[in-house]
Write a structure and sequence with these properties.
heterodimer; A: 4 helices; 0% strand; rod-shaped; B: 181 residues; mainly alpha; 72% helix; globular
């Protein structure tokens, strides 16, 4: 009886034409759903971009400033703070000038 | 999950859902409408309606019963709209269906009587007996599909099967064609 009822009610085709017909009728709705899903994705990125942009710019500016302004070096630098080291550097520079003059003279 | 993909407009996913459930849905709508062409119209309406409200589907539960509820309503709506509720309509339309080896083996008279008996049943009993006997749903599942108490489903299935059995026994009084489950 169960089989009889099932056979009686079962369609005589394999369902492909039916599936195609449903997909054809649903094409508009599916397209709208795809567009809505993509629109939602775009909105998310737009929001994320708007939120992240100032932070990103601030991070880049901060990094650039950190590289351009070395920490600990100012108007009172290490050379100026150490007169002995400055004198040594000057002396070395004078010796180097003497050696060069002698070499060129010869 | 095909339903989630279909909700996002995935044509392939929705097509797979239709392909997977089309036979059961068409059997149910066939039982309600009593006509193969009306059944396909109602089944198409059911799938489109399911897509339209797929956000209401609870993915933690089976898709079939949720879809069957929509299909039942779609078929009943179509019957109401077209006001075709005649038992003899089935007998007129049955020969127009294409034959197959399986259907050829059936007695045409048995089929006609079964069709007529099915058409005589109230819509809810047709749905209940179809889901129970043709689709293998339990009483509880049918109750969930139809939104009625399980006891009412048992009663509907019992009365529907008895009516169908009587229709078949008219042909062969000695034939035991239906076993109560």
């Amino acid at each position: 009886m169960n089989d009889l009822l099932k056979r009686l009610l079962s369609p005589d085709d394999d369902g492909r034409a039916f599936t195609d017909a449903v997909l054809l009728r649903a094409s508009g709705a599916l397209h709208q759903r795809r567009a809505a899903a993509e629109g939602t994705g775009r909105a998310t990125w737009t929001w994320l971009e708007a939120w992240a942009r100032p932070w990103l710019i601030a991070a880049i500016v901060g990094l650039a400033l950190a590289l351009a302004l070395p920490v600990g070096r100012g108007p009172q630098g290490p050379a100026a703070a150490s007169p002995t080291l400055a004198a040594d550097l000057m002396g070395t520079s004078a010796g180097t000038s003497y050696v060069l003059a002698e070499t060129l003279g010869n | 999950m095909l339903a989630v993909q279909a909700a996002a407009g995935d044509r392939e996913a929705f097509g797979a859902l239709v392909e997977r459930h089309q036979a059961a849905v068409r059997r149910l709508t066939r039982a309600v409408t009593g006509d193969a062409h009306d059944a396909d119209d109602a089944a198409q309406d059911a799938f489109l309606s399911a897509l339209d409200r797929i956000e209401t589907y609870d993915a933690s539960r089976p898709f079939g019963p949720w879809l069957m509820r929509i299909a039942t309503n779609a078929a009943i709506d179509l019957v109401r709209r077209r006001a075709v509720r005649r038992a003899d309509a089935l007998d007129e339309r049955t020969p127009s269906r294409r034959s197959s080896p399986a259907t050829d083996a059936e007695s045409a008279e048995i089929r006609a009587r079964l069709n007529a008996a099915l058409a005589e049943l109230p819509e809810r009993q047709r749905v209940a007996v179809t889901l129970f006997d043709a689709e293998g749903y339990s009483h509880a599942e049918i109750a969930a599909v139809l939104g009625i108490p399980e006891g009412t489903v048992r009663s509907d299935v019992f009365h529907a099967r008895r009516a169908l059995r009587v229709a078949l026994e008219v042909l062969d009084p000695g034939q035991k064609t239906m076993e109560e489950r």
